[in-house]
Predict the 3D structure of the following.
Amino acid sequence: MYILETYGAPAQMIKLAEECSELAAFLAKYTCEKLIDPAAECSEIEESIRGEIADVENLIYQVRLIIGSRRIDEIKAEKIERTIKRIKMERGKKKC
């Protein structure tokens, strides 16, 4: 990938951390705005979130090329399965 080859793996990993931080900040801002006023107009924040998600996804793609995707996909599947099991257990407890 041209971008990865140009900037190198270490720089792109650092950039991913930066972009994740920016995304987290906008998500926190959005959540705070909505907690204060659920009817608040947040279209500018939403657009910023969209932009940060795009940046994060582009950089995640590059990092997957660096460290390998197969194991990531396996871990994702394991985590989804674990979460589904936990939800089912929690729902079962509520019925009792």
Remarks:
- The mean pLDDT is 95.
